[in-house]
Amino acid sequence: MKLVLPPRLGPRAFDTALSAFAGVVGKDWVLSSDADRDAYADIYAPGPAEQWPASAAVAPASVKEVQAIVRLANEHKVPLWPVSRGKNLGYGTAAPRMAGSVVLDLGRMNRIIDIDPKLAYCVLEPGVSFFDLHEAIARENLPLWLSVPGNAWGSVLGNAFEHGIGYTPYGLHARNLCGFEVVLPDGDLVRTGMGAMTGNHAWHLHPLSYGPTFDLAFTQSSLGVVTRAGLWLQPAPAASLELVFDIPHEDDIGWVIDTIAPLKISGTIDQNVFIPSWLGKMVLKGQRRDFWDKPGAIPDWRVKELLAQYKLGYWQVALRLYGEDSVIRAKADIVRAAMARNLAAPPAEHWWHSGDERNAIDTTMGVPSAVPLQMSDWVGGRGAHMGFSPVVPATSEHVMGQLKRSRAIIAAHDVDFYASFTIGGRFATNINMLMFDRDQPEQIANMKSLFNALIGETAKAGYGEYRTHLGWMDTVMDTYDFNGHALRRLNERIKDALDPNGVLSPGKQGVWPAAWRDQAKEGRA
Ligand code: ADP
What we know:
Blueprint: H1 11-25, E1 30-31, H2 34-39, E2 56-58, H3 63-76, E3 80-83, E4 102-105, E5 112-116, E6 121-124, H4 130-139, E7 144-145, H5 156-161, E8 177-183, E9 189-191, E10 225-232, E11 234-235, E12 239-247, H6 253-266, E13 273-276, H7 279-282, H8 300-309, E14 315-323, H9 325-340, E15 348-353, E16 383-388, E17 390-393, H10 396-412, E18 419-423, E19 427-437, H11 441-460, E20 464-465, H12 473-479, H13 482-498
Parallel strand pairs: 2-4, 3-4
Antiparallel strand pairs: 1-2, 5-6, 6-10, 7-11, 8-9, 8-10, 12-14, 12-15, 13-18, 16-19, 17-19, 17-20, 18-19
Helix pairs in contact: 1-3, 6-10, 10-11
Bound molecules: adenosine-5'-diphosphate.
């Protein structure tokens, strides 16, 4: 990818800044060739990756180096875009929101600083991947389980910082974070929570600070570079039982939510219950042309045929219980009885007991996997996906309304429909996966118009997205409009106070520092 300089920075000033960075990390860790830039491009970009170009990347190996780079960025007015492992697929990968930003690649900071099996937590640097942590736990045979996202290729902390979700009792990943170490935009170093006291022993255990609690202010945020954080882990259960219910019809999702959400809220079910529609299974069986060889969405009659042929329900609930065998049996009776009120067929049941192998692609058992990435192959070509992900109250009324609305908009754009609802408690996260071929301009144009329609109509109905791709960060922030966009104004005031030169992640989540606010109109999809 050709060099695009940061706004208002000339080539000489840029080179001077890169040399200064090289003085900190060594010249091998300042990456600025065309090939380097390609490596930090958005491989799932809806359209040309050149829309969100990094000018270079710099990869520090220690907190001191991060501080030095951030200070130099202020001196040279160079915008930085921190990533942990930069595998944020569907949301921008490692690419920055503002063209010409320098990616601050934290992948070299990959130490597992501590794992405590007794109190079930670990302390990580940002470069630690799900696979690294899983292996470290397995190597020492520690009684701890991870919670992993659908695609576990990336960083444990990076995913939690983006508010990623998993399908275990610890599935709201940002909620497991406890106690941060952060380099602020001026290079200062702060520890949150109990860690604000030198040598405090409860840093990663007590989730509140003395005074305001800042931890989550550094997630989906441009207020600091997190250099380590504590993360609570699930104690390995003695046993686990999976109950798989095939749910025949699209409209059944209403009673399914009304049945499962109360059990989740009351604690009978601990897990984040993932309920994908049929296409979630089909994408693992082949490409769309194996099942339907015409352009446009697969028609309903063909969907019905496929469901019959592959013995699939429209939805599948793979619900998992964890804990002592006797407790699981009692809970399973409650779950079966509740589901039996609307569903005659009993669930398929799979027991696991401590000492048994765990299924290597079962995300409900905390084993990292990249298999779900296969969905990018669905349409063929240079496949990619984006997720449209609003959050709705976990009741049939809201879920059905959301389903019908997005279903109609997606059908009007003639795109295959793949929805899922994940019951996280009092809310459900509705992820609509949209697959496309990056080399088909008409598919890209259609995706953009579809995504804009989904955001607009969903906000009008009273629901917002929890996370989005670079190209829509501003559009989604626009939808959080209470009191003349008071949230954005608050974000901007804090941003400008902490980051007067706007060097950290300008435009992240639609928050622009004063220094670059004029760039907000660029890079919108
Ligand atoms: P992953 O590799 O786990 O998918 P990324 O490294 O791509 O995650 O991180 C996702 C996003 O989270 C980044 O684009 C960035 O905005 C933010 N982020 C990641 N790591 C940090 C960090 N250490 N400090 C601050 N923000 C971060």
